[in-house]
Structure formats: C-alpha cells, structure tokens
Amino acid sequence: EELAAIRARRLAEMQMGGAGRGGAPAGIPGLSGMGGDAAAKAQQQQQAEEQRQAILSQVLTPEARERLARVSLVRESQARQVEDIIIRAARSGQLTERVDEKRLIQLLEQLSETQKATKITINRRGRLDDDDDDF
Questions:
Q1: Which of 1, 31, 89, 105 fits as disulfide partner to 35, beta carbons 3.0 to 4.6 Å?
Q2: Are 59 and 51 contacting, i.e. CB atoms less than 8 angstroms apart?
Q3: What's the CA gap between 61 and 105, in Å, rounded?
Q4: Phi then psi for 60, rounded to 5 degrees?
Q5: What angle do CA 42, 45, 104 make, to 5 degrees?
Q6: How far, in Å, CA of 55 to CA of 130, rounded?
Q7: 52-90 per-position pLDDT tens digit
Q8: What single DSSP character describes residue 123?
C-alpha cells in the first residue's frame, strides 16, 4: 500500500513536470516535422508502462515483486510474459487475492514447461559414427 502511494505521487509529479515541456525536445534536427508523432508515441508507451507497473504493484505482494524483478534481470522476456499473464488475470477479474511468491513461482514453472515442450533438439552424429568409413 505504501509502495502504491509512493508510485502514485511519483506519477503525478512526472505528469505535472512533463506537461509544461511540450512535444519534442528543441534543437534536435530532424524532429521538427515528425517529432510530435514520435513524442506522442513515446509518451503513450511510457504511460502504458506506468499503468502496467501500477497494476502489478497492486496485484503482487512485495516478495513476489522482488522475485519478478530478479527474474527480469536474467530472463526479461519470461518475466514480461508472466507480467502479461498476471495483468490479464487481474483485468478479467480472475484474481481473488494478491499474487504471492509461491503463486509466482508456479506461474514461472508453468511457463518454463511450455517453453521446454516446444524446444527442438538436433542430434548430430559424431566423427566416429560416420557411415563413409564402412569399406
């Protein structure tokens, strides 16, 4: 709850600070014509990411957030997939309680199993098993 309040204050400060700046940074060549679109798109992505983080901070326990942060250092794509699963469940109302560290570990294991199931391995013959040596 404290963390959510701090994030909300920081978000409000960033929104107030960014409102007076305008669009693209001045003095950078090439951003005058399409700078508004790029700046708007960047701002939209930033807002979407802030919204993701806000949802995750409400849904995850502090321990689960910490573990997810550690996972994202090693496997960013896997952490992102787990975040997507959790956010989808939260938006659809499937979560009745906060996701704790145990549940997060279960989600990570399920995701690993599905990725292992789709893995293709190629076994190559070694040099000693070459058929050309059979004279």
A1: 31
A2: no
A3: 13
A4: -95, 145
A5: 150
A6: 58
A7: 999 999 999 999 999 999 999 999 999 999 999 999 999
A8: P
